[in-house]
Specification:
Blueprint (H helix, E strand, L loop, with lengths): L1 H8 L1 H8 L4 H25 L5 H10 L25 E2 L5 E7 L2 E6 L6 E6 L4 E5 L2 E7 L4 E5 L5 E7 L3 H39 L1
Antiparallel strand pairs: 1-4, 2-3, 3-8, 4-7, 5-6, 5-8, 6-7
Helix pairs in contact: 1-5, 2-3
Length: 203
């Protein structure tokens, strides 16, 4: 976030260079930025695979539960992956899913022994609760979530709880963007007036 703020503050400097004897340097900098943007846009378009409506709908159905890109897997994920017929499984116990949202899952587990396996990669911010009791959450060998549940029938709430630092970072990021746009508009509104006033004083 610091770099964009510095770049926004440096716009008047680069503008003065573009109007002076070092104009070639400003053109080189602008050209480098243009090449970077053009490469990113062209790479995205070139790597895209066009689908018709039927293929697109089928792909959307196949994505949930698919392995994904290995470079984005957590360090505790290891192949091979255990096949799961359902989103939540527990051998010898009945499981009924009541809610399945990106950051909140609720399901009822019947009586019996054994952990519950959830078709979601484990991450330390996943928390499981049965009423007011917090349950153990840990990764399986392939990285899937394992929830330790009591032997009696129980309702489990699996919630992804972001730490307070995430909200703090979002607030700082929003403030940074406000500063960037503020500096830009300040330069557009008052930069020209200051330059004119300086010329009058010098003359």
């Amino acid at each position: 976030m610091v770099v964009p703020i510095v770049m926004a503050a440096a716009l008047p400097y680069w503008e003065s260079i573009a109007k002076g004897k070092k104009r070639a340097l400003a053109i080189l900098a602008a050209g480098s930025i243009a090449v970077s943007i053009a490469f990113s846009a062209a790479h995205t378009v070139r790597e895209a695979k066009p689908f018709d409506a039927t293929q697109f709908a089928r792909t959307l159905q196949e994505i949930p539960g698919s392995p994904g890109v290995s470079q984005w897997w957590p360090s505790w994920v290891h192949e091979p992956f255990q096949k799961m017929a359902r989103a939540v499984e527990s051998p010898g116990r009945e499981v009924a899913i009541e809610r399945w949202d990106p950051e909140r899952r609720e399901f009822v587990v019947g009586p019996g022994k054994g952990d519950v396996r959830v078709r979601t990669f484990f991450y330390p911010h996943w928390k499981a609760f049965s009423g007011n009791t917090e349950l153990s959450v840990r990764p399986d060998k392939d990285g899937a979530i394992l929830v330790g549940v009591p032997e009696n029938a129980t309702t489990v709430v699996l919630q992804f709880q972001e730490p307070a630092r995430v909200r703090l970072t979002m607030a700082i990021g929003l403030l940074g963007f406000m500063v960037i746009f503020g500096l830009l508009f300040w330069n557009l509104l008052f930069g020209q007036d200051k330059a004119g006033a300086t010329k009058v004083l010098v003359s």
